[in-house]
Structure formats: C-alpha cells, structure tokens
Amino acid sequence: MSEKQIDEFSGVSTTGHEWDGIKELDNPMPRWWLIIYYATIVWAGAYVIAYPAWPLISTATTGLLGYSSRSEMKAEFAAANAAKADYIAAIASKSVTEILADDKLRTFAAAAGAAAFKVNCVQCHGSGAQGSPGYPNLNDDVWLWGGKPQDIQQTIAHGIRFTEDSNTRVSEMPAFGDMLKPQEITQVANYVASLSGKAGDTSATDIAAGKELYAQNCSSCHGDEGKGNQEVGAPNLTDAIWFYGSTPAAIAAQIKAPKHGVMPAWGVRLGDTAVKELTVYVHSLGGGE
To answer: Which segments constitute the Cytochrome c domain (predicted)?
Structure first.
C-alpha cells in the first residue's frame, strides 16, 4: 500500500494501491458506461413499481399496472378456445363421414386428433403410428377390424378386449396347446408360415399335414385361404405382417398359447368429439380404407 500520487508517465493520479511495483491508476469510468449503468438502476426501480416484483407470504406485489402473466395466459387460452369453438361444435354435431367431406373441418379434426394421439396413443403405437411387436401399424392398409372411418371410430371408442366396456371388440383365439399334439402344432405353424413364404426348408409332407390340420381347426376364423376375417378380428395370415413374430417357432408359440392384446376404450376417457378427431387423424395416415 502506498500513498496517492501523480503517475509520471500518464499524469493520472494513482489510487494508492501497489503490487510488485505496479501502481493502479485512478481512471474514471467512461461517461457512456455510467449513463447506461444509472439508467438500468432507474429502469429497475420503475419496473419494481409498475410490475409484480416482491413475493409475499401468499401472493406478491401487484404493481401499478396490475399486470399478471397468468391473466394474460388465461386470456390467450380463452381467445384460442373461442376461435375453435365453432369447429368443435361442428365436429360434435356431425358424423365422421360428414367431417371427412368438409375440407376445413377435416383439416381441423386431423390436427386436433394428431395432438390427442401424441398424448394418448404414442406409448403403444409409436410417435409415427408405426406400431411395434404386439401393437399394430396404423399407416398400412392391414386392419383386424376394418379400416373404414366407422370401423376405426368403433375401435377407438370402445377398445379391444376392454372388459369395462360392453361394446368392446372381442376375439379370442383358443390355446391349441390343449387340443393339438406338439408335432401337430409344429405342422400347422409350418403351413401358416408357408402362406407368406416363411416356411424355409420345411418338407412338403409337413406342410401338407399342417394344411389339413389348419382346415380342421383354423379355417373357421382365418378362412380357407388364410385371408382372415375382419368381422371377428381374425388376422390375414398371408400378408407377411405379424404381431408376435413370423418364424415358424414364433407362430407355433402363438398357436400353443396365444397372446391377446388389450386396447382401452377411449370414448369414456376422452369423449365423443375427441374420438372423432382421433378417427379422422388415424384415417388420414394413409392406411384407412
């Protein structure tokens, strides 16, 4: 520490501080910097007075302007709801077929349905509705219960094997492990795999035996040619699209002890309007009939 003095090189007074022979000059701050600094202090004071600023025990100071971000948000929500009220009322009063026939209404319903899908459906069907093992792909044209708008609406509204809804879709594949011998199950699996070219090097004798067993046990639901039946939710066995695997071993496991997926009934949870919006969106993905 040293006393203040005039620096001989710059002619500026020092602050009296010195470190290792280096003395600190007492240069004033630039005037423009000081003006901005004082302006920010004035601005901060004015803000505290005009806007909510100080938190209290159960509320906060309201400020002279009475501004509230929550009130602003509520007003924006109210304006948005008012803007779409006519569309929602129209969707509520019209059938899905009528909604699809109206370009503006269809566009609005598809957008609303996409939002509802992201909240309620992506967990099973995927963000792109591409499905996953055990969950159907909604982009293709393969439908267990039909892909017409009314079919999709029925499935979404009442679900599949959802016991809490009396109108739910119901199909039940028997556990053939209790009816057929292991060798017979293998033969049926090989025949079913052959319908979509997945039989590999299975012998023609086994496939023929499996075909006979299929005709006796499976054709009543899946059809003589394995094309399926949408009325009972029996899948098409010839299209190479499988829920639980396409290998003969996977097919045999499903024949022996079938898995049965469950889809909730969204009608009660979301309401009729949201179900229509979801129907329009799912149908718009490209796989609707």
So the answer is: 108-196, 205-286
Q: Is 263 known as a binding-site position?
A: yes
Question: Among all chains, which residue has been given the structure tokens 């396409």?
Answer: 246
- Annotated binding residue at 173? yes
pLDDT (average), residues 96-102: 96
Tell me: is residue 121 an annotated ligand-binding position: yes
For range 18-38, the mean pLDDT: 89
Count Cβ atoms below 10 Å from residue 202 Cβ, excluding itself: 18
Q: Two tokens at 5?
A: 């003095």
- Non-local CB neighbours of 100 within 8 Å, separated by 6+ positions: 106, 149, 280, 283
Which of these ranges, 39-53, 80-94, 195-209, 220-234, has the smallest mean pLDDT?
195-209
- 193 within 8 A of 199, measured Cβ to Cβ: yes
Find out whether 218 is annotated in a ligand binding site.
yes
* Distance between CA atoms of residues 176 and 209, nearest Å: 16
Confidence at residue 9, expressed as pLDDT on a 0 to 100 scale: 77
Cα 285 from chain centroid (whole Å): 14
Domains of the chain plus CATH, in order, are: 1-67 (no CATH), 73-165+267-284 (1.10.760.10), 176-256 (1.10.760.10)
Other C-beta atoms within 10 Å of 179: how many? 12
73 is in an annotated binding site: no
- pLDDT tens for each residue of 245-272: 888 999 999 999 999 999 999 999 999 9
17 has binding-site annotation:
no
**Distance (Å) of CA 149 to CA 100, 107, 116:** 9, 15, 17
Residue 159 to residue 169: CA distance in whole angstroms: 6
Sign of CA dihedral 227, 180, 244, 268: positive
Both tokens assigned to 108: 């609005």
